[in-house]
């Protein structure tokens, strides 16, 4: 099926060479030396242990106990599961005006799902090949959405106009080729599925226009590690491997992907590559493209792969990385060769308070540009963002309040110019094997911080800053029970543009809420997640009480649209951390492209997928 | 002419926003703060001071004096210009069997150049706009080739089937758009010209098939620095700016491009981007794509540029970097936003001898992967490569020979297992502002070297290793005078593949020479130029005496073809250091692509340049 497989190409070269040389060639297709092949099949991951109408695991959620104290269930997450959060309720009552007595329960199930539209010729073609397929409602529904607030809200209170007609779990690259070729032959639409953890509506099915059967292609049965080369520091994996599972395996060998993110928990490596999720990256690994050495992508026009050049550094001709970030609109990634790094045994978070957001930014800029210390992560939250971090505090109230008083006095004494609402907290993450060296590094970071009025926050705050963002989706779903709706958006900006962009976007969100008669004013927290020489990424987390709104989703959509436009108008890039463009951001993304580039994208689509088998309509 | 200019897009957003908000917008298109705009016009660079039939400047060449000692003329290069090279002649006599009495003089000029094919409608369209144009033979010839051995040989002893019919020097982006649109309207072919310093035959005109007038578009009048942002660490320049000129300007402000290469001397930044020349990169700057934040490219279908997102870090949607490395086949780059770095004032080369190539590689791999020290460059030469470095020695013979004896004894004593022909020399380049820290770093490098039997070569050898490769083209041209022809090829390979690839390519070159009755066996030197976590780049420099060959160029071509195929068969990538694919490597490059990718490239070409205005036929 692949138009140009390596063996044929190899034979062609041999013939060419014989012709040139008049010699017998050795035909020695030497493979890499000393390559390990663990070929370990990882634990198969399905959606059965995940909530049908919310983010994450069924056993993990927030609840108020009889005294009104928020606590979390389950035992999956250290520092989080089965903990009490004493400051959460008061803070939520104040900022989002939630009321424990005013609840907004989700529907127990979606009443009516359309029955599947089955293309029997297609089914007859793939059935004999032993490819797993399901038409069950629960499978179809769970594959028809991601975890955006809008999608979860629809699951709780509404319905989807269309969901996939069947879910298919291929087990090999060849099965994927067979499915795609059958889809091509019998005119079936196909939406690749990694883990369903995107929050940009990337998996929602096209509605009226799409009359064909739509299949969801769940790659998660393809989760084998095919090869691990310690010498060349790469791993070859099937694309359906969940990043976290792979990471666990790699650590056994002393390696790491160098990635980290809230999404890592569920994401498959293929999903990460196809959505170009920079959320996962750390300063160690660089941009996602730098992590990917090689790949295979099945398209209706054949399989895209590098011949010969399996794992050499590439630096010739056009850069085919255009295929990353195409979000399953052109084909399915089935295999990836990923760069690996040595795993460092020690991690140190260095949290520093700054008297203003401005000073915090100057500090981060110096860390990014001067390269005095080698860091793995850098974050910053503004004062509302810091309140959110504090709300996740799990220390008992007595200890906490005493401690808090001490801290307050201490910092206020040090930060004479502190204005209310202006404080921020930065935290640098450093990795290494030698704790003594990390301590030296910590000291240097403290010295840089001091130049901008920073004071080291000698506590667990740094680590909490990092883990809080990973657990926020659980809080978001919990809040929906109390008429508080929340969402997030992200952007990047040049260093000198960050403050303007932040102020303008905050103002835009606030003004839009005001115009929609939302009271009290929305909560808006700002976080810097990644820093670069040239700028930083910014995440806005916002929420408001929606009890008096007829249609909270349309208000949420309006806020998102005006905020995205404001980001573009402030010379920002419209996405960074979240998983791609999807349908959520495609209009604004389109605005950032020049006309010839739009034409190029359309021509690539036409070349690789002329009949629009990959019909998910993301991006454009 | 651009189908989608930023202002129109901005207006569209404004309208959209007003519609959403029912509000007056501020229409505040805020630009970046505090951006410097030196707008300095750099010295205009033409070809008049360069050789018409050789590499580099007219005033710089090798010569033998009356005693037969090789020396170099001119005063451009420290450590090179007007120096004597006492060991060069004996070495050349031994390895390439040159004979001072057997010379092969170049023709004084090319007798017959075809007169220009002028499209008068096109000329009439651009003339009134005041765009500089020349039909002079000398301009046309100098723009019809690069600096490959084959091209220089043709200039010395043959002719070109076709050269451009005119040379045009646009001065602004708008003039480029005007020229491209006129070419589109009146059916004229166009080949963008940066500096003519590629060695992959990228500038040779298509012959019989191309009946249209062909213009060479020399960008070097577009050499203004448009903006320099110290805060965001970028510089915006016109694409015709010569990288070295830009580097000099940047250093005045304390910055650097972080690039280095033999080509930097003449290359324009646009040429570097369009050929994706990784030659220029250092470990500081990373791959070329990471240096380029933004760009403008004029295509027949319109101007490609990012709207709004001028300088923010980008991490959304497909990666348009596919347009880098397209080698002027789709359009002309007119403007680039480049990342800049702080310039370090101190540089230290740490050269280390190893008893074998294998051990040298293990050392480099550890330097690349363990990241114990931060380095800017890493090189290695095998023993023949080391001989070449030694041949560039400029110390007087007495001092040299005494010194050499001392060194020899010292190292032989230390390296007990040393086999003849197996030694290699590695050199790590480290940068910084604090010489004490660099010395600490040097010590660490020495310790890593020691693990692999390395001995620090306490001399100027490290620096010489770096500069020798920059002056090799002058030596290559000089050797042509004495019937010695030489060339180079490069590749990349995984770490564990480097040795196999090197052995196989050397064997292939040697066997091919043998089959062609070339005596003595060819000189082949191997150099590692860049190192990565996953592998390294390899440059083969080879030469032989061609006095008895009827057609040295066809033999050279044969060697190149079999070597390139061997590189592919050894799982290497067919190019790295040289400037791109061009016409020289397009067949083998094609072999490294899968069929759907070839289709994608063709569809992009068809979309952006349907009438093949950019007719240079590079890449494919």
From TrEMBL, chains A, B:
Q: Does the keyword Signal apply?
A: no
Any GO MF annotation of the entry: alkylglycerone-phosphate synthase activity
Which pathway does the UniProt entry assign to this protein? Glycerolipid metabolism; ether lipid biosynthesis
Question: Does Transferase show up as a keyword for this record?
Answer: yes
- Tell me the compartments it is located in: Peroxisome
Task of the protein? Catalyzes the exchange of an acyl for a long-chain alkyl group and the formation of the ether bond in the biosynthesis of ether phospholipids.
Name it: Alkylglycerone-phosphate synthase
Domain of life, source organism: Eukaryota
Report the leader peptide range.
none
């Amino acid at each position: 099926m692949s138009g140009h497989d390596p063996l044929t190409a190899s034979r062609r070269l041999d013939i060419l060479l014989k012709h040139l040389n008049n010699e017998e060639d050795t035909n020695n297709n030497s493979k890499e030396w000393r390559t390990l092949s663990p070929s370990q099949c990882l634990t198969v991951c399905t959606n059965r242990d995940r909530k049908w109408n919310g983010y994450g695991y069924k056993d993990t959620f927030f609840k108020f106990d009889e005294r009104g104290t928020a606590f979390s269930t389950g035992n999956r997450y250290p520092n989080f599961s089965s903990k009490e959060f004493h400051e959460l309720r008061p803070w939520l009552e104040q900022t989002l005006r939630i009321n424990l007595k005013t609840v907004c329960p989700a529907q127990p199930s979606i009443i009516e799902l359309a029955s599947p539209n089955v293309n029997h010729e297609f089914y007859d073609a793939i059935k004999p090949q032993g490819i797993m397929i399901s038409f069950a409602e629960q499978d179809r529904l769970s594959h028809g959405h991601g975890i955006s607030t809008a999608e979860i809200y629809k699951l709780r209170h509404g319905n989807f106009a269309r969901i996939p007609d069947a879910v298919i779990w291929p087990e090999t690259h060849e099965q994927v080729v067979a499915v795609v070729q059958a889809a091509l032959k019998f005119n079936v639409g196909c939406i690749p599925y990694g883990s369903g953890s995107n929050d940009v509506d990337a998996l929602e099915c096209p509605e009226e226009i799409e009359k064909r059967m739509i299949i969801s292609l769940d790659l998660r049965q393809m989760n084998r590690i095919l090869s691990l080369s310690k010498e060349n520091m790469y791993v070859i994996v099937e694309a359906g491997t969940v990043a976290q599972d792979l990471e666990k395996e790699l650590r056994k060998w002393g390696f790491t992907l160098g990635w980290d993110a809230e999404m890592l928990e569920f994401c498959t490596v293929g999903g990460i590559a196809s959505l170009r999720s920079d959320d996962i990256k750390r300063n160690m690994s660089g941009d996602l493209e730098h992590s990917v050495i090689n790949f295979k992508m099945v398209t209706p026009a054949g399989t895209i792969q590098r011949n010969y050049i399996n794992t050499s550094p590439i630096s010739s001709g056009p850069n085919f990385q255009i295929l990353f970030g195409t979000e399953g609109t052109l084909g399915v990634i089935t295999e990836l060769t990923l760069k690996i790094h040595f795993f460092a045994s020690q991690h140190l978070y260095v949290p520093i308070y700054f008297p203003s957001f401005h000073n915090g930014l100057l500090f981060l800029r110096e860390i990014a540009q001067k390269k005095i210390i080698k860091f793995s992560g850098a974050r910053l939250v503004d004062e509302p963002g810091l309140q959110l971090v504090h709300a996740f505090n799990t220390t008992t109230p007595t200890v906490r309040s005493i401690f808090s008083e001490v801290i307050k006095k201490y910092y206020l004494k040090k930060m004479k110019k502190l204005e209310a609402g202006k404080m921020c907290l930065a935290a640098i993450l450093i990795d290494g094997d030698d704790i003594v060296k990390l301590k030296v590094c910590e000291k240097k970071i403290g010295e840089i911080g001091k130049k901008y009025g920073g004071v080291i926050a000698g506590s667990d705050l740094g680590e909490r800053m990092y883990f809080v963002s990973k657990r926020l989706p659980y809080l978001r779903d919990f809040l929906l029970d109390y008429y508080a709706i929340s969402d997030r958006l992200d952007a990047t900006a040049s260093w000198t543009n960050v403050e303007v962009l932040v102020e303008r976007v905050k103002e835009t969100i606030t003004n839009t809420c005001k115009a929609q008669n939302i009271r009290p004013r929305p909560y808006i927290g700002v976080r810097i997640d990644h820093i670069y020489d040239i700028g930083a990424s910014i995440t806005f987390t916002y929420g408001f009480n929606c009890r008096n709104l007829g249609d909270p989703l349309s208000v949420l959509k309006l806020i998102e649209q005006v905020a995205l436009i404001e980001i573009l108008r402030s010379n920002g890039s419209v996405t960074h951390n979240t998983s791609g463009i999807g349908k959520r951001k495609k209009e604004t993304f389109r605005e950032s492209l020049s006309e010839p580039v739009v034409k190029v994208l359309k021509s690539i689509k036409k070349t690789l997928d002329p009949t629009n088998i990959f019909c998910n309509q993301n991006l454009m």
